[in-house]
Write a structure and sequence with these properties.
The protein is an alpha/beta fold. It is about 30% helix and about 20% strand.
Length: about 90
């Protein structure tokens, strides 16, 4: 499943999201969700950050993430049959 996180979550909510993630899932942070990039090291699946969204907020890249662009996001949606937005 592709999980797309668009907003800021509290620590407890984010921990609950991470708890349902599986190794074959993918988690994409976009919009204000990019503020949680430093927490992605807890995720059991690959974590991605929309590079343009991160840069617009003046954030440096975090070590546990992979910066992606819109083309890569489209590819991820093609690779996963289901998606959920948070």
């Amino acid at each position: 499943m592709l999980h797309i996180l668009q907003g800021v979550m509290g620590q407890t909510e984010f921990e609950q999201l991470v708890a349902i993630l599986r190794p074959d899932d993918a988690l994409v942070l976009m919009d204000d969700g990019v503020y949680l990039q430093s927490q992605l090291h807890h995720a059991p699946c690959p974590g991605y950050v929309m590079q343009a969204h991160r840069q617009m907020r003046g954030l440096a890249s975090a070590g546990a993430t992979v910066d992606i662009d819109m083309d890569t996001l489209v590819t991820l949606t093609e690779q996963h049959n289901n998606s959920a937005s948070w």
